[in-house]
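Internal ticket #5521
Category: modeling
Description: The requester needs a full-assembly model to guide mutagenesis choices. All entity lines are attached below as received. Residue total reported by intake: 558.
Assigned to: D.W.
Attached entities:
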Amino acid sequence: MSVSGSEIISADLSGLRAQFPILSQKVHGKPLVFLDSAASAQKPDVVIDGMARMMRSQYANIHRGLHWMSERSTEAYEAARTRIAEFLGAEFREEIVFTHNSTEAINLVAYSYGSLINPGQAVLISEMEHHANLVPWQMLRDRAGIELRVAPITDSGDLDLDAYGELLADGKVALVAITHMSNVLGTITPAHRLIEMAHAVGAKILLDGSQAVVHRRVNVRELDADFYTFTGHKLYGPTGIGILWARRELLDAMPPFMGGGDMISSVTFEKSTWAPIPAKFEAGTPAIVEAVGLGIAIDWVEAIGFDAIAAHEAALTKHALNVLSEVPGLSVVGQPRHRGGVISFTMDDVHPHDIATLLDRNGIAVRAGHHCAEPLMRRLGLTATARASFAVYTTEHEIDVLASTLRRIRQFFV
Amino acid sequence: MDENSLYNTIIVNRSRAPLHAGVVERATRLGQGTNPLCGDRVRLSVRTEKEEIENLLHETRGCAICIASTDLMAEAVTGRTVADALDLARQFTDMLENGSSMVETADAAMPDALRAFLPLRTHRSRLRCATLPWTALEEALDHD
């Protein structure tokens, strides 16, 4: 039953599991089978050690100390920004704004860019958005008299491109905000096409890349996007660090999101003036060590390479769809044309929370519930699903353990 | 599988075939509990006569724990006075959330069937599934 052997993982990624200390843990006396990476990925040694090393040897607050330690911290923090700019293919490193997560990045855009959208104009989202890319726009709608439009999905879980086009047609949409990959259905949205269609009617477009950046190379310039957000902890980095990328001219035109230290150029009691980007959007002491940790995680991911990652996840997803389809009573939710390593499912009328608890008793971690996408669940006619999601360290054996345990759970209930 | 500890026979049976599902005719009180985390929903209809619960039925959409807990609650409170039922609600929640010892709950005359949920104390993330119907009961009985 041990799943720590390099013989199990595909040849390209052999040895990776050993770099994740948590994967050798036992849960309820069983080897941990961690199939909840889409919620948050586990961290390799190199990230854990790198962050600890920084706090042990070269740490101080950034941008303000005139001493050696502060200078070293500042260098490391700004080097991480450069690294992330390269990772996303950004033209300028100043286009990378550190936030605390993708949710904050989207809120920043909704608040700040949202203040530049006129009443009567519209924001267009889709039916499969995470609450993070839905609630901030509802708040903007209610605050500023902006219309919120929702592009439907097809029954198979793809975005309905015809309907998307129709919602753009009257030219009122100022901003499209749409996921690059669904956290529930695994759907990879046709970003190039969505961006082209948005730009054709003069709309800007934000892509929520929290799931997508984990599975594929993203190049914001090649995509011709306007805003792109992601979070560090799904990309094998730490929690507490997220990224907003936006075109320089957009960031320049946007008012600050939060006020405080580090984001000003000068302050008097009468008036403050803003620092240039990206500092304008980074009020207060940022997540310094976490930014550095994310930079390390990205180095680690790129050393493996997205070709190898994509091949591994495609093989796992194919295997999982095969073995899960053979479990009696199990239905996979959605059959999108292009999908990443995320599979939501139901099993007869066994409640997903009961499935998750019983899987947990067997050491298997999955997510169950509405996955922070309640409107999508309603669209699918469900209240909840169970979800297995895969990462570079996931093995076919773990998926087999999932399938055989699901069979036993079903026998127990039906 | 060691699921017997939590998913024991009474819980599994009651979740599959609840004995107190339905809507009470001429109900005098209604209560609802929802769990936004999972979408589970308990609806109670209750008929009381002189502060005694004559009949209580439920419509529950939820997991096995939630359905079984609702059904066993219906059984436990029918025939009790409103004050007694509310007292039992507090004891049940206390048993799970604060880990009142089994001795203490025995003193308080906790019906045996409700003890089936004791293993939930080691599944803290599922406590709400069992306490949801009791929240709905409090709503029904507190508001005429």
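Resolution: model delivered.
Comment from assignee: The mean pLDDT of chain B is 88.
Ticket closed.
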